[in-house]
Amino acid sequence: MSDAGGDGAGRDRPVVGVTAYASRARWGVWDLQACILPQTYVESVVHGGGIPVILPPLPGLVEAVLPRLDALVVAGGPDVDPARYGAEPGPDTQPPDLLRDAAETELLAAATALGMPVLGICRGMQLMNVVRGGTLAQHLPDVVGTDEHCPTPGRYARHDVQLVAGTRLATALGDSPELSVPTYHHQGIGEVGAGLVVGAVAPDGVVEAVEDPTLPFWLGVQWHPEAGQDRSLFRALVAAAVAARQVGARQVGGR
Fold first, then answer.
1. Active-site residue 226, yes or no?
2. Core vs surface per residue 147-185: b (16+ CB within 10 A) or e
3. Count of domains in the chain?
């Protein structure tokens, strides 16, 4: 992260909070519960022009940090508790992380109220849909008949997505009609949440992105942009944070 600037150049870079896992981890001689996040998220925020800050899953507390941030990334992870969208867990649904569900739900509510740019990735997009009253398909192979979205445990697959013209997602990705993306998920969106529009779909019909067109930048994607080489979405998030900061400065200066 040396390009963040020991010479002060990094002081003007937007600060981007990224939600983290609370999970058992091993390093050196230790085997302990830890707050962790794949390094690819950190690197993607840096390459996108931001300064990453890792947010632990602390409901009732972590959302208080949002006024000190410029943007939020809700990262991937385990399945959202089906109780949050009025369903019973299916046989292939993972045990829920209730603390993380609660913390990220509170973060999304607070970030939305602040008008903060938000990018949801995989589970993050699914939770964004759930907080808007949408539902999830708990096991995609039961819906689409294949495991194309997550064929090999612990390895990303790739498939194409069709972008919807005119969406913020299409603009962020250069208005290309089709994109090959890294994928690793066994769940997906069922019913789309209130106020959201679909930004991309897979060839099998699975929703691959949603966004709220009434907000400056409130976008979720089902794939894993942090696992690929294209940092366009992170650059778009940081650009939205810069724009929001400039609007805030103009409003303060005009008082």
1. yes
2. ebbbeeeeeebebebebbeebbbbebbeeeeebebbbbb
3. 1
